[in-house]
Each structure stands twice: as C-alpha cells, then as structure tokens.
Prior knowledge:
This protein has helices at residues 31-36, 40-43, 48-51, 72-76, 80-87, and strands at residues 5-12, 15-20, 25-29, 54-57, 60-63, 68-69. It is of the alpha+beta class. The chain has a single domain (5-87), classed as NE0471 N-terminal domain-like (2-Layer Sandwich). The strands form two sheets. The protein has a three-stranded antiparallel sheet with strand order 1-2-3. The N and C termini lie far apart (32 Å).
Amino acid sequence: MFIEITKAEYQSDYKIKLYFSDKKIQIVDFKLFLENSQHPITRKYLDIKTFKDFRVEFGDLVWNDYELCFPVIDLYENVISKKMLSIA
C-alpha cells in the first residue's frame, strides 16, 4: 500500500499533526531533530515562524523548495525523534 500525507496542521512548539491516506493520524514532534542538527539550513527551522511555514506537496511534508523534508514512512511511524536519539 502506498501511504502519503493528505493534510498537516501545526499544533504547538515543533509539533505537527499529520493525516495519512490510510486515515492514520500522528502528531510528530520535530524539536529534538532540529535542536540536534548541526547543519545551518536545518537549524534555521528552530525559528518557529520559519518552522510553521510548511506545506503538503505530492504527499510529502515539505518546507521551502524541499529544503527540509522527511521520509513519509518515518513520519508515519513517528520515529523522527527516536532516530535522533540513536545517533546522539
């Protein structure tokens, strides 16, 4: 089955509520990922105004011109922060 994001809503802080094509809903917290990133392009999204400027395009959650995006399966399984913990 092909899963894609159908809708995304800003919640609070660095949390986004994601709606998937199979009706699953996840609230993903990006804070740990952003705080642990060393890349300046990624770190600029610690600015809440910049972070909130996301969109859903072709089933993906993206910022800017795909400057920041994540594998849909990682968002679906809500493992963004868990992956950062295993790297740190």
